[in-house]
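Consider the tokenized backbone below.
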């Protein structure tokens, strides 16, 4: 099978690309605009494979997207290309509307046009897998409540609203045009190659430099944490085994308050990097509470029983095992994150 992965140079997308090349016999076409969050060094380990191809294309560019479909003739699409940082969506919503809504529409149209040209067998086998987020559901009030596949949408931020919009478009293209689509909604991911602006890598790298560890509000916001390699395996399971028209929630079964995540990182660094930056006695002393962001959701938690029952997937990593692997990866791979922090990862891009 040849799979077109959009956003394949991003955090989750690159994990999907690596998983497909390293663990299956399938081919990958990695389509990525290479915004600030796209990093080809995240797929360097598999980029020399004869089963890998890269296209630097903006999903909003209909001409180029149609060319990619015509040229590569994919058997499935895994759509991960998206603007995904909540703080950035608050500061500047426009990019999120453009990429997440207009980009998804453009991709759906191109996929439909291509799908219409396929033979009956290939048409029946084709899949358009849209990867979304649990943030479309808003947040949970009760401590025992969980997001299910039928939870009503109630997005809080420009980011989650744009992803909710894209989910609705995907379902409409199935209902109206018959395009064979599947949607997954995942909880917070973490792991290797995570862009440093996100909570976990931001805390690791700030602590290593003796910088403040900024925690929003009281730090009691709860998230369900999913190790990115587990997510990549789940996504491949869905695109190859999932039922057309279905939605699958993917979660890590690891609910943690943000402050507890930060303190866990601090404890791991005490063990793994006892030689602290000058002036730092304990890593936890660097924790600094800052003004909460507007509309901050209090709690997310995924009910992932459907994907386990119907497709046999469940996460392999606990939060304790996954966070240790993550911290260790950042300690062992300073070249990757240093090049992100100083911007040099962007200088060697196609057309740069």
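A designed sequence for it:
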């Amino acid at each position: 099978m040849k799979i077109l992965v959009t956003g394949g140079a991003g955090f989750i997308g690159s994990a999907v690309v690596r998983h497909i090349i390293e663990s299956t016999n399938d081919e990958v076409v990695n389509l990525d605009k290479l915004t600030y969050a796209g990093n080809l060094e995240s797929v360097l380990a598999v980029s020399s494979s004869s089963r890998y191809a890269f296209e630097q294309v903006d999903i909003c560019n209909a001409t180029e997207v149609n060319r990619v479909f015509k040229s590569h003739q994919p058997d499935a699409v895994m759509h991960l290309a998206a603007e995904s940082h909540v703080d950035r969506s608050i500061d500047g919503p426009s990019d999120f509307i453009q990429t997440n809504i207009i980009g998804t529409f453009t991709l759906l149209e191109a996929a439909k046009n291509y799908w219409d040209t396929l033979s009956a067998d290939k048409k029946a086998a084709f899949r358009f897998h849209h990867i979304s987020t649990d943030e479309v559901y808003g947040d949970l009030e009760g401590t025992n409540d969980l997001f299910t596949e039928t939870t009503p949408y109630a997005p809080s931020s420009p980011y989650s609203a744009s992803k909710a919009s894209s989910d609705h478009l995907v379902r409409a293209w199935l209902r109206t045009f018959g395009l064979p689509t599947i949607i997954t909604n995942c909880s917070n991911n973490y792991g290797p190659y995570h862009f440093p602006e996100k909570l976990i890598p931001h805390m690791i790298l700030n602590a290593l430099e003796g910088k403040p560890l900024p925690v929003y509000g009281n730090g009691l916001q709860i998230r369900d944490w999913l190790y990115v390699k587990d997510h990549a395996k789940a996504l491949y399971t869905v695109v190859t085994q999932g039922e057309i028209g279905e939605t699958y929630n993917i979660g890590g079964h690891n609910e943690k308050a943000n402050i507890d995540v930060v303190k866990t990182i601090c404890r791991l660094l005490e063990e793994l990097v006892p030689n602290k930056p000058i002036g730092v006695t304990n890593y936890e002393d660097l924790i600094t509470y800052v003004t909460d962001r507007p509309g901050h959701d209090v709690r997310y938690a995924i009910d992932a029983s459907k994907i386990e029952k119907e497709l046999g997937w469940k996460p392999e990593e606990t939060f304790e095992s996954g966070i240790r692997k993550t911290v260790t990866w950042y300690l062992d791979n300073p070249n990757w994150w240093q090049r992100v922090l100083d911007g040099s990862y962007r200088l060697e891009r196609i057309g740069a």
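Residues 2-194+226-252+300-316+334-346 form a domain with the Rossmann fold fold (CATH 3.40.50.720).
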